[in-house]
DNA sequence: CATGGTGTATTAAGTGATTAATACACGAGG
DNA sequence: CCTCGTGTATTAATCACTTAATACACCATG
């Protein structure tokens, strides 16, 4: 459970983001139980309602599901998981293109920069 | 003067963004006079203070300058302009890498998506 | 049967930033 | 000299959103 919060985005958004990443990459497997609202709140030192809000939105999106009074679980719908992953990718691409388009810069150049940045961050993880 | 405002970001931020793009691409040339605060506000139908805030930040960043009571002008420092352009590119790259890194996706794939998106938007402009 | 852990719902508070209102100082030009 | 258009500064209002407080229903378990 490695979340580092920035103070720019709302907490619940960052929580959602984290879970989406974990689910999209398979770090949280389909059907796997996730922490209860209160447990997550305790671990992350946030208000339980903030955890609830994040979970609620994820549930409405079909990313997790809840049965009875038990902690929620990751959806078993692997197609849904795949589509969420794809959406995350497309959102990033859209935002990037939208930011880069008005500036005059070649595709090759930005690809080079992206590649460099990716490698750089990989190095940082050694 | 083609600005379309979204309601997600603050007005003054979007104004700054617009001018940065224009200056970075050379659409606004070094030394060129830009609209007065009130004129801009009138054109964009925003409050003059909002225009002022945008201009003030741009001036603090060295993007524009003001002499006496005359409308501000684009900086003549072409190195500054080049560096601002580079910063915009790097910010976009950083944001993109940050968003894409936690997901498991190959460089080739995202490059393909970016290329497709760029072409798609180019088509839309026909 | 009561206690503690679930999820859930409603409402209030706080917080922070953006935007707007207003006023002031300066200078060119009629 | 007065008016109009500049830039500038200070303060207030607004506004949306996030976060928190509180309470309720359910159920398993000792």
UniProtKB/TrEMBL annotation, chains A, B:
Keyword annotations from UniProtKB, A to Z: DNA-binding, Transcription, Transcription regulation
A GO MF term: DNA binding
Natural source organism: Compostibacillus humi
Chain ranges of the HTH gntR-type domain: 9-77
Key word Transcription regulation present: yes
PANTHER family for the chain: GNTR-FAMILY TRANSCRIPTIONAL REGULATOR, HTH-TYPE TRANSCRIPTIONAL REPRESSOR YTRA
Taxonomic path: Bacteria, Bacillati, Bacillota, Bacilli, Bacillales
Iron is among the record's keywords: no
Pfam families: GntR
Tree of life domain: Bacteria
Matches recorded under Gene3D superfamilies: Winged helix-like DNA-binding domain superfamily/Winged helix DNA-binding domain
Coiled-coil regions, chain positions: none
InterPro entries, A to Z: Tscrpt_reg_HTH_GntR, WH-like_DNA-bd_sf, WH_DNA-bd_sf
Protein name: GntR family transcriptional regulator
């Amino acid at each position: 459970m490695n979340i580092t919060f920035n103070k720019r985005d709302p907490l619940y958004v960052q929580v959602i983001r984290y879970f989406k990443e974990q689910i999209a990459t398979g770090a949280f497997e389909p059907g796997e139980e996730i922490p209860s609202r209160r447990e997550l709140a305790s671990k992350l030192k946030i208000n339980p309602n903030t955890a609830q809000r994040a979970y609620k939105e994820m549930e409405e999106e079909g990313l997790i599901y809840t049965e009875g009074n038990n902690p929620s679980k990751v959806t078993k719908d692997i197609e849904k998981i795949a589509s969420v992953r794809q959406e995350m990718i497309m959102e990033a691409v859209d935002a990037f293109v939208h930011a880069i388009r008005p500036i005059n810069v070649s595709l090759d150049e930005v690809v080079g920069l992206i590649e460099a940045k990716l490698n750089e961050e990989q190095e940082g993880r050694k």
